[in-house]
Specification:
About 35% of the residues lie in helices and about 20% in strands. It is elongated.
Length: about 200
């Protein structure tokens, strides 16, 4: 059973090495396997770019036009997401002017519209605990345990979980401050003894 925000279908045309490909990820763990140079990372790039994220997230090509297949004028990425009413996001990339056009369910949209739609489904392509491109593995490995916890909470929970955690941290800091103030007051008043 697909969760809300799951990718149901991906269709690519003239994207990097692909002329035309369509695949249907399952509702559970999906793995893309194959020898080097067969297009695994290209699919990952397509998902990130098709959901509205910038090329800098991938650590690969800088210009969006670099993802158009050599010899072609445009590429398209179409991603269908599970929702109460299925959402189909289409990004058409124009090589000549290094630009993109967006559609949501066949209607013209802006990048802001796409990001808002993706955000409502808690899809976080910029969160390394939810989306880990090959070129970002070393960055993921450098996360501290506390950063890893925060990013994991954002990836699997709703906004309330993160807010509760931040509130607990703040309350713990306040508790530490009050304890120090009370110890200082006891010391000043002569009630502090060292054993």
């Amino acid at each position: 059973r697909y969760q809300m925000g799951s990718i149901v279908r991906v269709n690519l045309k003239n994207f990097v090495t692909y002329d035309s490909v369509e695949f249907f990820p399952g509702p559970n763990l999906n793995m893309i396997i194959g020898p080097n140079g067969t297009g695994k990372s290209t699919i990952v790039c397509a998902i990130a770019l098709g959901l509205g994220w910038n090329t800098s997230l991938l650590g690969r090509a800088r210009d969006i036009s670099d993802f158009v297949k050599h010899g072609q004028e445009r590429a398209s990425i179409e991603i269908e997401l599970k929702s109460e009413n299925p959402i189909v996001i289409t990004r058409t990339i124009e090589k000549s002017n290094n630009s993109s056009r967006w559609k949501i369910n066949g209607k013209n949209a802006t990048l802001r519209d796409v990001l808002a739609k993706v955000n409502t489904l808690n899809i976080q392509v910029d969160n390394l605990c939810q989306f880990l491109p090959q070129d970002k593995v070393s960055e993921f490995a450098q996360l501290s345990p506390s950063e890893l916890l925060v990013q994991t909470q954002k990836a699997v929970g709703d906004k309330e979980m993160t807010e509760w955690h931040e509130r607990l941290i703040k309350l713990r800091d306040e508790e530490k401050t009050l304890l120090l103030v009370n110890l200082f007051i006891l010391y000043i008043n002569g009630f502090f003894f060292l054993f």
